[in-house]
Structure formats: C-alpha cells, structure tokens
Design goal:
Elements lengths: L1 H10 L1 E3 H10 L5 H4 L12 H4 L1 H17 L6 E6 L5 H10 L3 H6 E6 L3 H10 L5 E4 L10 E6 L8 E6 L2 E9 L6 E7 L2 H9 L8 E4 L1 H17 L1 E10 L9 E4 L2 E3 L9 E3 L2 E2 H10 L3 E2 L3 E2 H8 L1 H9 L4 H15 L4 H4 E7 L10
Parallel strand pairs: 2-3, 2-5, 3-4, 5-10, 10-14
Antiparallel strand pairs: 1-7, 6-7, 6-9, 7-8, 10-17, 11-12, 11-13, 15-17, 16-17
Helix pairs in contact: 5-6, 13-14
Length: 354
C-alpha cells in the first residue's frame, strides 16, 4: 500500500492499468512478487489444482498437435504465468508416456515473479524446463503457447461513456492523502480512436480496453508466424458484445474491494474472448471457434479417461475424482465460466477440442 501511496504523492494521478501493474507486479510490493496466491491457503484455485486430469487432457492435446505438425524434431511448449508449477509438473508426467514426443520436447516457463519462480523450481526438477522473463527470449519452434488463467491477470484500462463523452478511469489520493480513490478524466483522442477502431463501443457504459493483452498477443503471433504452432488460452471470460465492469479483487477466496488491500489481494478482469479472436485474426492467425472449458475437455475425452481410471480405484477415490471433474465441467462453475480459444498458424488443420 505504501508503494502506491508514495507513487501517487509523486505523480498525483495514474491510469488504472498502471495502478494494477504496480499492485500485481512491482518487484518488492507486487502481489505476485511476494506470495503464492494459489490453493486452499492462498486466495484462489485453478483447474490444475482441482484435478490432475486437467493436466492430462492438456498433455494429450499437445502431443496430438505435435503429431498433426508431422512430428517435428523439436517442439517448444511455453506456459504463460505458470503459477506454482502444478500444470507443468502434470504435463511432464504425462509427456513421459510418449517417448518420441518427450525426446523432442523443450518447455519454457514465462514468469516475471522471482518468488513464484523459486516455488516452480522446487516443484519441477527436469532439465527439459527453462525459465524465461519475456517473450522475446523464444528463438525456436514450432511453439505451443499455453495460457491457463494468464490473460485475466494482465492490467486493463477502463473507459466510462457518459452522454457520448469518453472518460478514462484513474487512481489518485483523497484530500488528506491517506486514502486511495478512483477519478475519471476525459479520455485522450488516440485512446478513444483505438477503442472505436476495435468496435468496443456497444451497449453498456463501461468499456474495458486490455492494452497489455493486445500487445502480448501481437508479440506471440509474430513468434507463431515465424516458427509455426499456436496458442491455447483457457480463462474465465465472456463472448457477449456488451460492455461491463468485470474488474474484481479476491482475497482468501472471497471478493474484496479493489482499493482496500492493494498488494495483498489479486486483481483480475474477465477476458473479452471476441476481442482476443479479433486481435489474433488481425495478426493473420486462424482461430478455432470459442468453446466452454466443459466442451473442450469433454471433446478431448476427460469423462472416458475418468471412467477407465475409476475401475482401478476405491469408491472414495472414485467419488472424489468425479466431484473434481464436475467442478471443471459444470456450466455453472468452471465449465461454463471458463472459455477456450485456439489460435494457430494458417495451413494447420488441427482442431481437437473445438
């Protein structure tokens, strides 16, 4: 909190995306830089922690994609924001079952947080895995990017539309300089032009502009076009063309006020999947239709796999396994809230899960 207050005392006012960036990624103060946010003792839980079958399905998807690419002698998997390393660990365990694929494999973990990198290195002990801090470090391919709950953690801008005038959301200090508050300023012309060019102006008066995500997609697309491959994104988000305020803060698995525990709570926003699709297409990549996580995992065969495994387990283990799968697949839970998008280099016909 002190970091934000000191920044605001110096700069007086900062845009929302800069505020989120400091809150989450400041080297000393940032939420992701000083704690493990995942699990029961953390603030939220992700699909790989819900069920090992999630990682197994993603692993099978990767192997089949590699086969579709005619089994290149090198295949690079880049996990975006790998958290505590659970998904990577599960992927490696399953990849080892496919010897030819495993021999061609290299994994890069794209991680900004030194704290989380240390946790990942404790969980993953494999010379196939390397850590990178920026996408520019990727220099081989084909490359398969995997982003599970990655894009929701990137800072966004918010623009408020009132009586046909656009206002950008900023963060500043109250009169006594002790409390952080929101403030709106008339949006710059080029910002308005950008959101209009992307057709982000529709019903609803809060427009979310994920500039960081757009810049990242541009960079990832260049790598895919250069080396071949694709990007698989799984995240909670929406496909309706309706503007809404999706910014949220979570602490101990409960929603909290965004400005109250800055640096100690997670700040995220829902992913606008239609916009993501538009940006990938603008980069001349082919995008498979957007599906729910439920549809994606079922098309790969998660239920069939669970039925096979259940024959070798106790009733208690079976009940636990299907309880966890229900959480991944239920349309009222992760199954419906999470959407999946696959962007690939043109000429690739692979569409498993879509």
């Amino acid at each position: 909190m002190n970091k934000i207050i000191n920044t605001l005392k110096k700069e007086k006012i900062i845009p929302l995306d800069k505020f989120i960036d400091i809150a989450l990624y400041d080297k000393k103060f940032g939420y992701y830089m000083k704690k493990n946010p995942l699990g029961k003792n953390g603030d939220f839980i992700t699909s790989p922690l819900v069920s090992k079958l999630f990682g197994e399905m993603i692993a099978i998807w990767c192997v089949l994609f590699w086969e579709n690419l005619n089994k290149p002698s090198k295949i690079l998997i880049v996990e975006l924001g790998p958290g505590d390393g659970t998904l990577c660990k599960d992927l490696l365990k399953n990849f080892k079952k496919f010897t030819n694929f495993y021999n061609c494999l290299e994994i890069n973990l794209l991680e900004k947080s030194r704290f989380l990198t240390r946790i990942q290195k404790k969980n993953i002990n494999n010379n196939k895995v390397k850590w990178i801090k920026k996408i520019e470090d990727i220099n081989i391919g084909p490359v398969i990017f995997i982003g599970n709950e990655f894009f929701d953690s990137l800072p966004i801008k918010q623009i408020y539309l009132k009586k046909k005038i656009f206002y950008e959301k900023f963060v500043t200090l109250s009169g006594n300089q002790k409390k952080i508050i929101f403030k709106y300023k008339k949006a710059r012309k080029n910002l308005v032009k950008n959101i209009q060019n992307l057709n982000l102006v529709s019903s609803g008066n809060v427009i979310e502009y994920p500039l960081n995500a757009i810049k990242f997609i541009d960079k990832a697309s260049k790598k895919i076009k250069k080396f071949g491959g694709g990007l698989l994104a799984l995240d909670y988000g929406y496909t309706q063309n309706k503007n809404k305020n999706t910014l949220q803060s979570v602490k101990k698995h409960k929603y909290s006020y965004i400005l109250s525990k800055v640096g100690d709570s997670d700040i995220t926003s829902h992913v606008n999947f239609n916009l993501m699709l538009k940006i990938f297409k603008k980069n001349n990549l082919i995008v498979e239709k957007i599906v729910t996580q439920s549809e994606f995992l079922q098309k790969i065969g998660i239920i069939e796999r669970a039925n096979i495994l259940s024959k070798k387990t106790s009733f208690k283990q079976k009940a636990d396994m299907f309880y966890r799968i229900k959480k991944l697949l239920d349309l009222k839970e992760m199954g419906g809230l999470f959407k999946v998008l696959f962007a690939k280099k043109s000429g690739i016909k692979f569409s498993l899960g879509f």
